[in-house]
Specification:
single chain; about 110 residues; alpha+beta; 5-stranded mixed sheet; 2 helices; about 25% strand; globular
């Protein structure tokens, strides 16, 4: 299958009518380049659809997912224009669950 080493989330919405070239242009604008074996996630303004652009080292894959009810829990602009996600966080995000406190972000350091 496709190897993915890094998963990045863009905080600004993307028009879901975007084709692979438009999504790739947004990746280059936000992340500087589309690096091999990286996935880039975008949501629409309403937060009920996502697109994932994956560079597999040879070409570009563009995937889409829609929730029939509810919204994806997306990063706010307070995170900056991009956020790196762990595989566990992506799984929670795609299922429509809050992902922000999974992994190291959920560590309790003060009692």
């Amino acid at each position: 299958m496709i190897r993915i080493d890094e998963i990045w989330l863009a905080t600004e919405p993307l028009d879901m009518r975007a084709d692979p070239d438009t999504a790739l242009a947004r990746v280059v604008k936000v992340f500087g380049a589309a690096r091999p074996h990286c996935a880039y996630l975008f949501a629409n303004r309403r937060g009920n659809r996502i697109k994932v652009l994956v560079h597999d080292g040879l070409g570009i894959w563009l995937c889409a997912h829609r929730l029939n009810q509810g919204k994806f829990h997306w990063a706010g602009t307070w995170h900056g224009d991009r956020v790196e996600l762990s595989p566990e966080q992506v799984t929670a995000l795609v299922q429509g669950l809050p992902w922000q406190r999974l992994g190291l972000a959920g560590a309790i350091s003060v009692l």
